[in-house]
Design a protein that fits this description.
Length: 752
Amino acid sequence: MHMKTVLILLVLALATIFALVCVLLTRGRAPGPCQHQPPEQEDPDDVQSLVFADLTPEELAQVVQYLRGNLGVQLVDASRAKPSDNCIASVDVQVPAKAEVLRFLDGGGPRPPREALAVLYFGNQPEPNVTEYVVGPLPTPAYHRDVTVQKYGGKVPYHRRPTLAVEYKQVAGFLKSRAFPLAPSFMRQVMEYDGGNLAVLTAAPRGFQSGDRITWFVLFQNVSGFFVHPVGLEVLVDHSSLDISRWVVSRVFYNGQYYRDMVQLESAYAQGGISVEKVRKAPRDGDFSSMKPRAPAAALFPLQYEPQGPRYSVRSNRVLFQAWSFAFGMSVNTGLRLFDIRHKGERVAYEISVQEALSVYGSNCPGGMSTRYMDGSFGIGRYTSPLVRGVDCPYLATYRDVHYLAHSQVSRVSKNALCIFEQNLGSPLRRHYSNLQSLYYGGLVNSALVVRSIATVGNYDYVWDFVFYQNGAIEGKVQATGYASSSFLHGDGLRYGNRVWEHTLGTIHTHSINYKVDLDVGGVKNSLAAHDMAFEMTRAPWSPEQQIERPRLTKKVLDTEDQAAFRLQSKMPRYVYFAANSKNKWGHQRGYRIQITSFAGDHVPEASSMERAISWARYQLAVTRRKEEEPTSTSIYNQNDPWTPTVAFADFINNETITSEDLVAWITVGFLHIPHSEDIPNTVTVGNSVGFLLRPYNYYDLDPSIYSHDGVFFTSEQDFTACEINPLACLPRTASCLPNFPPFTYHGFQNM
């Protein structure tokens, strides 16, 4: 062979080998890190949102210091206060009046003074009471004013005060040192009591009439997931006296029988007059109630990441996401709340906030049958828990700490207790595939922004979400998980639930959640309208002998608060919306529709002596005039005195005119829970999710999501593999990167 030919072949071979090596090296090379791009939005109003901001630890400390030095009474730290002491129960931000805020935000008016609301217990007074003070201006307080009478029409009686953590400790100490020793044989032989193997859970409310502070305390094995380990013993403690030494046991319940006190229980046991039901001692991990996985880790579950970084921004308490902006905060009592919610720069809601979470239980045991938990009294915000990256929220979500001051004179922090993230919901927000006339595909990924917190109030964990969609809709949603509360199974217990373990009755109960939604649609002044459908019969114009049944639109303006109050199980118009005084391009009143998703159980009968305290739960929706003197649908004082409620929502509805007024929607959602074996070890969120949607209804001239940058469209005549035609075709290049997962940390077990 000619030498020149040999050389050419050799060069070609070397070139081929080099090309193959390059390809192999390229394929083997790990993708580079994801390159974050700053969000496109600019935020000229980020400082203004601070008018709604939670108090900082420094501000909380300043308020405490001011109160300790300016009230002229001795204040004991609430973490160690006796009922007969004076103490600061809680401090939170005092949100200014709406008119002041709007003058500041919209009218160039002065910034409202920054103030705090302090709740004080005055037990060391001739007439013990609860007093609320507004303290300001912050950060250097110089004044305080008593607002109790202004808010509630009088002083708040001391027996209504929410129970401090230290009072529960004092009750536990009373049981251990004074009550249980009166039945030594029963406690040792039946309960196998060693001073630390029993856990106590409170019932509430506490008695049957105003002034009572008499509480059933239910005993469980002190193991992991103790809520489903009842031992059959329940003790009624009268702790109404401000002198702890005068507390007494009023009744005792064991395995279906009632006893006057622990002494009578011991006597009956010694005489063989008790039907003893020994409960098998559970290991420390709870055995069946343990949440430790029963299977080893395997392939990693799917993770979410943002190839070019977050497309939202969080500065202080303000969030921007595409066309959305809003401020967020955390009330120590009611939890997550949003303010000044705007879409495309226009305010659609002034406030959206959680108001209350109510649980009403049934049982044939006294603690269960008397329980109506009003979680705001315990503190939904106070019990907001640190979030676990990758489970409670996406691993790469933005996390924020929550600072609060309650049951102590020192503020505390719940680390990473609020998360914000954009979530690809894995389905199209809208789409169409056309195979008629023209051939094309058009769609938009349903990617939404989520703001989340999770409150663990006793046995239940509530996952609170506010979700912002690209079409201008807002969703408020709550998912319930945690442990089901239980009673000791005896007698006719199966009338009140299902047996879920050997001695455990999962007790029937309802969940009811109330929200405040202050919509401002096209301005502050709105009306309430209802659209629905009805069938009408008509003759076919082209064939008069034939009849057609056709649906038609029905319209009604709801003029009064009574017309706008829809009872829980009543039929409600399917389109209820806040209507603006302006119209869209097509001549329709611009509006935002309220759409409720709920499968609530029945409400407590109105004949009940305590029903007025929870009368908000009568209604799936009630729309009232907005009033500064009606800021919340309930009160933290209603739990311990529901018989004379400090706030009765039913009084808000007094048939006032609601056309062209500043209106508030009070929305109640809920579900009936009959615990079953699959609630062991604990309850899942699937099927236990309820909430509401706020949806544009003729608010825009067309769907605003058509302007989203995420839209996909291509025709049969286009090269849909080209990036400039179809952004999905670019994913191998734009999304093939390594996200930066920060090291896992968790702070949930600190400062307990």
